[in-house]
Every structure is written in structure tokens, then in C-alpha cells.
Amino acid sequence: MPLPLENPDVAEKNADQNASEVSTLAELKRAMEAFEGCSLKHTAMNLVFGDGNPDASVMFIGEAPGADEDRQGLPFVGVSGQLLDRMIAAIGMDRSSAYITNILPWRPPGNRKPTTNEVTVCLPFIRRHIELVAPQVLVLVGGTAASALLGRTEGITRLRGKWLIYRGKEENIDSEIPCMPIYHPAYLLRQSALKREAWRDILAIKERLDSLNDK
Ligand code: URA
User: Fold this and answer.
1) Structural domain includes residue 100
2) Mean pLDDT along residues 133-138
3) Number of domains present in the structure of the chain
4) 197, 115, 12, 104 alpha-carbon torsion, rounded to 10°
5) Could you tell me if residue 3 is inside a domain?
6) Predicted pLDDT at 214
7) Is the whole model's pTM more than 0.90, yes or no?
8) Residue 29 resides in a domain
9) Hey, which of 85, 88, 102 would you mutate to test ligand 1's pocket, going by the most ligand atoms within 8 Å of its Cβ?
10) What range defines the domain where residue 180 resides?
């Protein structure tokens, strides 16, 4: 039986407290598994935590698991995941050198869009996830990830292809990470005319990573 939904403000505070107490990705995963403040946990089959190399210089953050991801407990393993893999390959990387996760670790039923409350409640976990992976570059895959982590209201069409700054919790310069929002592969699969812009963004990310490697 699903537990009654916690008040979102209380749930967010609890998530924030739980996230601040962990110091490794394994502990973060355990804290998320034990978290009771998001009702999506009760309709999902699995917690989808992350995949790839936790020492990666680049971290891709999508929206939420779909049916395939929920079944396998891994992010981006369905059809849009195959396109994301091709985008990552175009950067010269794969899942052994990049890291992939989502804003929400549980699948919204029927793949509906996450609600603002669900995103707000789970935000402390993804923010801690970013701190622990500490990538040099963040790629925000789709509008949900971009608006959740940048606090911007513009749609993805406006934000994509721009280098922006993700600000972590601490108000210091070390918590600032360059990030680029890109079109979500599920959107690209429906709007193939946008692929040219999408590949331009991928190229810009590759150039940025190449220039970091040259330093
Ligand atoms: N879409 C997402 O945003 N994330 C996934 O893991 C799969 C599809």
C-alpha cells in the first residue's frame, strides 16, 4: 500500500538533510532508496540511480526513467537512450568514460511529465549527486533538467546550445560548473529537423572537453 504523500516542504527538507549526510555515491543511493517523500517510488519497479564512470569529466542529466529504464534500473537504455549513446559517441566517449543520470530516480507512471513538486522534492539528491561526481562539464538533457538545475523559465529551444553556469549549493566559485542544455533525444526522435542544431551543440561540448584535456 502506498504511504500517504508527505507534505512537499517537509519531504524536500528531509531530502536535503539526507543528501547532506552522505559522502559517497553508494551512500547517496542508499539514502535515496530509503527516502519516503516521493510517491513515485511506490509505482516504480526500480530506483534508477546512474550509469557510467563516476570519475567522468562530463555528466549527462536527463528528466526521468521511462519503462525500459524502470525495468532495468539504468538510465537511458530505451530508444532515446540509443540516440543519447550516439551523441556521446560523437563526443568521443561512451558509458565507460561519461556519467549519466536523471533529475528523478523513479519513473512517473505512463511516462507523464514530472510535477513541479516531484522535481523540487528530489532536487537535493541530484544536487548532491553532481557534487559527488564533480564533473568539469554538465550536459542538461532536455527542458526539465535545464529548468530544474538552472532555475530558468525559458524553454529548451531558447536555452540549448548556450554555455551557462550551474551553481552548486555552496556559494563559492568551486561549485560553479559550465553546463550546456541540449535537446532531449526523445524530442529529437519526433522532430528530426532539429538534429542539425543538436549535432552543433554536441560538437561544442566536444570542443570544450578537448580544450580541457589540452590544459
Ligand atoms: N528519458 C530520460 O530523460 N531519462 C531516461 O533515463 C530515459 C528517457
Assistant:
1) yes
2) 97
3) 1
4) -50
5) no
6) 84
7) yes
8) yes
9) 102
10) 8-214
Residue 86 CB coordination number (10 Å): 12
Degrees, nearest 5: CA angle 68-71-74: 75
Is 1 a domain residue? no
Probe ligand 1: pick from 40, 76, 107, max atoms within 8 Å of CB? 76
CA neighbor of 98 nearest in space, from 50, 52, 63: 52
CA of 136 to the centre of ligand 1 (A): 22
DSSP at 97: T
77 C-beta closer than 6 A to ligand 1: no
Average pLDDT, stretch 29-45?
A: 97
Cα(66) to centroid(ligand 1), Å: 6
CA–centroid distance, residue 172 to ligand 1 (Å): 31
- Supply the pLDDT for residue 2: 46
Cα distance between residue 134 and residue 176, in whole Å: 10
Question: According to the model, what pLDDT value does residue 7 have?
Answer: 85
- What's the CATH number where 156 sits? 3.40.470.10
Cell numbers 522534492 correspond to what residue?
Answer: 121
Q: What is the dihedral of CA 154, 182, 105, 7, to 10 degrees?
A: -10
